[in-house]
UniProtKB/TrEMBL annotation:
This is Translin. The lineage of its organism: Eukaryota, Metazoa, Ecdysozoa, Arthropoda, Crustacea. DNA-binding protein that specifically recognizes consensus sequences at the breakpoint junctions in chromosomal translocations, mostly involving immunoglobulin (Ig)/T-cell receptor gene segments. Seems to recognize single-stranded DNA ends generated by staggered breaks occurring at recombination hot spots. PANTHER family: TRANSLIN AND TRANSLIN ASSOCIATED PROTEIN X. One of its GO terms (cellular component) is nucleus. The gene is TSN. Belongs to the translin family. It comes from Portunus trituberculatus. It is found in: Cytoplasm; Nucleus. InterPro entries: Translin, Translin_fam, Translin_N, Translin_sf.
Length: 194
């Protein structure tokens, strides 16, 4: 009788580990799917960033409109890429996988803000950036542009604008760029970052 008890207990342990192994495999497949979708998003993000780098040379300063047009062509791919990523992330688990694409989202927000500034001399709002990326702004609507991601992305454009001001001194007075960063600086001074 004692041998049969151990056999039943052994079978329960084997079944438990078998179930656990299946869960681990499913999780690994899910993680790989998310990472694959993020890689596609990163490729487009880097293409946009590389194109935007052109504004920092003499020919680029003179061809900002053409550079922005080229970036817009790449940006049109982004909503479909976020949709593909959303399909990989289970509903309600946005923040569980957020760390995988947070940096890419920051770069895309920064690029969108910089392009808007270069074209229209203004900083786009959270909702406008989210819409251009194919995202919503509210957590309860599912896949969204987190406010912190928006703020992190906008922070980096002050660096790009100051760099552009230095590189474009011969093309136009740097004060035309610096007066635009002051409201951004003041706005961030009012936001209590924790």
């Amino acid at each position: 009788m004692r041998g049969s008890i151990h056999s039943a207990a052994d079978m329960d342990i084997v079944a438990a580990f078998s179930t656990y192994g299946s869960c681990v495999e499913r999780e690994a497949e899910l993680r790989e799917g998310v990472q694959g979708a993020v890689k596609d998003l990163e490729k487009t993000s880097y293409a946009i960033s590389t194109t935007l780098e052109k504004i920092h040379n003499t020919q680029g300063i003179q061809n900002i409109d053409a550079i922005c047009t080229e970036c817009h062509q790449e940006l049109t791919k982004v909503p479909a890429l976020y949709q593909a990523l959303q399909e990989k992330v289970p509903p309600g688990e946005f923040y569980r996988y957020h760390h995988n694409f947070r940096g890419t989202t920051h770069r895309l927000v920064a690029a969108t803000c910089l392009i808007t500034y270069l074209e229209e001399n203004r900083l786009p709002m959270h909702e406008e950036v989210a819409k251009s990326l194919g995202l919503c702004t509210h957590r309860d609507q599912g896949f969204h542009l987190d406010l912190e991601d928006y703020l992190q992305g906008t922070l980096s454009i002050s660096h790009e604008l100051s760099r552009l001001a230095i590189n474009s001194v011969t093309a136009e007075p740097p004060q035309s760029k610096s007066h635009e960063t002051v409201p951004v600086y003041v706005g961030y001074g009012k936001v209590e970052m924790r």
